[in-house]
Amino acid sequence: MEIERAREDALVAGVAGAATVATALLSSFTAAVSVATLPTLAPLAVYALYLFSRKGGPYGAFDTARNWAIAAAVVGATVLVTAAAL
Question: Based on the number of CB atoms within 10 Å of its own CB, is 44 exposed (0-12), middle (13-18) or buried (19 or more)?
Fold first, then answer.
């Protein structure tokens, strides 16, 4: 495995993991937000999609590790906002 590919994987995994942990912690320590277990894991689903979609290319201009990391963070934030609104 190339080192650049490993760095990209670590970036997306780190952001997805951080979004998952943040969602779980905010859900347990904040009375305003209550998120069930399955929606809490939604950012990890983005990481799984990233892994299974990267099977050798060709990749488009928007298919970058940075965009996948942003998508994982947005999914985590969406889960929190949706849970707070309900």
Answer: middle
- Two tokens at 50? 């990233």
Integer Cα distance of 63 and 32 in angstroms = 35
| Chain Cα centroid distance, residue 69 | 6
Rounded to whole angstroms, the Cα distance separating 23 from 1 reads: 31
The total of other beta-carbon atoms located within 10 Å of residue 30's CB is 13
Task: Please list, in sequence order, all residues whose beta carbon lies within 8 angstroms of the beta carbon of residue 28, skipping any fewer than 6 positions away.
Answer: none
Residue pLDDT, tens place only, 2-14: 888 899 999 999 9
Greatest mean pLDDT among 50-54, 57-61, 74-78: 74-78
Instruction: With 0.85 as the threshold, say if the pTM is over it.
Output: yes
Tokens of 46: 């983005």
The confidence score (pLDDT) of residue 22 equals 93
- The Cα–Cα gap between 68 and 52 comes to 12
